[in-house]
Amino acid sequence: MARKVLVLGEVREGSLRNVSFEAVAAAKTSAEGGEVVGVLFGDSVSALGAEFIQYGADRVVTVEDEQLKQYTSDGYSQALLAVIDQEDPEGIIFGHTAQGKDLAPRIAAKLESGLISDVTDLEVEGGNLVFTRPIYSGKAFEKKIVTDGLLFATIRPNNIAPLEKDESRTGDVSSLSVEIKNLRQVIKEVVRKATEGVDLSEAKVIVAGGRGVKSEEGFEPLKELADVLGGAVGASRGACDADYCDYSLQIGQTGKVVTPDLYIACGISGAIQHLAGMSNSKIIVAINKDPEANIFKVADYGIVGDLFEVLPLLTKEFKELLVNA
Amino acid sequence: MNIYVLMKRTFDTEEKITISSGKINEDGAEFIINPYDEYAIEEAIQVRDAHGGEVTVVSVGTEEAEKQLRTALAMGADKAVLINTEDDVEEGDQFTTSKILAEFLKDKEVDLIIGGNVAIDGGSGQVGPRVAELLAIPYITTITKLDIEGTTATVVRDVEGDSEVIETSLPLLVTAQQGLNEPRYPSLPGIMKAKKKPLDEIELDDLDLDEDDVEAKTKTIEISLPPKKEAGKVLEGELEDQVKELVGLLHNEAKVV
Fold it and tell me: What CATH superfamily classification does B2-214 receive?
């Protein structure tokens, strides 16, 4: 059944995030032949519309306002409700990002609709659009369908492949004028403290440290390796509780659930709560002094050894490989 | 200050998940307060101690959640309310839960509502923002700091590792992120006192709701376990050779670098 589906693109530092292209692919599946309409908010975003279309959107609607430069729940929901009012979609797809998680439930409540969060796969099965999502932090999976009303979902970064970019694709980029007013949240300051550049939830490579890292400085060799691989640094709860790093890096049942292509676990024993957060990564490498460590049970490749000896060698080896590549 | 905490009873994080006849097997499993809701309870108690008022912990579920509500009372909450949906809701979703909570809260003249940012079982993180929208109050999710002065709240929100300092006003709903505080363990006197604190139980009927009003908009059709991972390869030999081999495997075999 063809349906019109909106996809909210997410702009960070002037570019569309990768998850937005993945969301377009998910929208395309959801639309079942219907129209996919990209939606972009910001102070100046219409230039990004063309790229959104090259990744599969049929056309793009923008709302531009100085007050939409930074995400606030009030600002973005006013803008989105105006677009929904204009477009009357039958489906909506967001990325399951900080922004998507914050905004989608509110919009769903407003529209009295269901919402399927954190989707890792979707397909048409027996006439139904079926969404797969992890539960119990990835210890199990459930398949869900929408039984009433709008088809609304947020998709987890890194799981649904984006469509191939087609530079010959063109479409209409139109702007909708919305009066953004009475924002109840005012952002006073943004403090960036994550490892520069790559975000954990979107990282293709994660180098994570546990208690075996031993100190804050102990994370340095992990950072160096992550830099070489263009990845992000993560941590187990043990490392966070011991104050070696910030809780924002925590991966596990409490903390972030991640699914990178490559997960390198350094000095992490592999408690069940940690495994829940990372065991669905494509390839897992474990580096641990203890050959009996639980982490080796989920690892594709393991090195029994001291991470402080292994990591510098590994960083050097990858550097050479990537220089030659 | 009139403070409400939204609490969910969940599986202990230690539990392995098994499935029997298509459902998550709960036999013999330990249950706990959802860990993020513990931060919420702790924060509510701290705000009350600083500003006065009362903390009420509310949970939508079955009578089994009484145990976790008692624990919340033992931590220091003043009152607990169980909205027992056992007889009325067979398979609810987040639409269901938030509608029930909002109906319950709408005439309570709340100043502050705190919940966990996500439950570690369902993992959708929807109920907080949904309830705020239904009550038409502002909300801020994944907070790591909360300061209240008069009716102004200054909140630090975790945004994928970055921190936003946001100013907003009461009444307000916030959801707790790890790092917000260090939840206390119930003390023995706390546990004794909790036995005498009010724990009310109500049903949908008491909220003038019937099953149709809260009927789920989504449905789970299948639950499965992730494919079992085969034991991997532990490398051997000189460390330098192991590292070379590993890089080769990741590049040529796994093709992830």
Answer: HUPs (3.40.50.620)
Q: Where are the domains of chain B?
A: 2-214, 227-257
Q: Do A186 and B256 touch (CB under 8 A)?
A: no
Of B163, B219, B235, the CB nearest to A144: B219
Q: Which DSSP symbol is given to B186?
A: P
- The residue among B51, B42, B75, B87 whose CA lies nearest residue B201 is B87
Is residue A25 a contact partner of residue A161, using CB atoms and an 8 Å limit? Answer: yes
Instruction: Determine, for residues A247 and B219 on separate chains, whether the beta-carbon distance falls below 8 Å.
Output: no
Residues of chain B with C-beta less than 8 angstroms from the C-beta of A185: 138, 140, 166-168
Q: Indicate yes or no: CB of B223 within 8 angstroms of CB of A142.
A: yes
**Sign of the four-CA dihedral A186, B171, B138, B57:** positive
Predicted structure pTM score:
0.92
- Element (H or E) spanning A91, and its range? strand A91-95
A 228-247 near B (Cβ less than 8 A): 229, 240, 246-247
Q: How far apart are the first and last CA of chain A?
A: 46
- Classify the complex by whether its ipTM is higher than 0.85, answering yes or no: yes
Whether A192 and B133 lie within 8 Å, measured CB to CB? no
**Over the stretch B138-184, which tens digit does the pLDDT of each residue have?**
999 999 999 999 999 999 999 988 899 999 999 999 999 999 999 99
Instruction: Report residue B71 as tokens.
Output: 């624990």
Q: CA torsion B96→B101→B106→B107, rounded to 10°?
A: 130
User: DSSP string of B196-223?
Assistant: HS-EEEE-GGGGT--GGGG--SEEEEEE
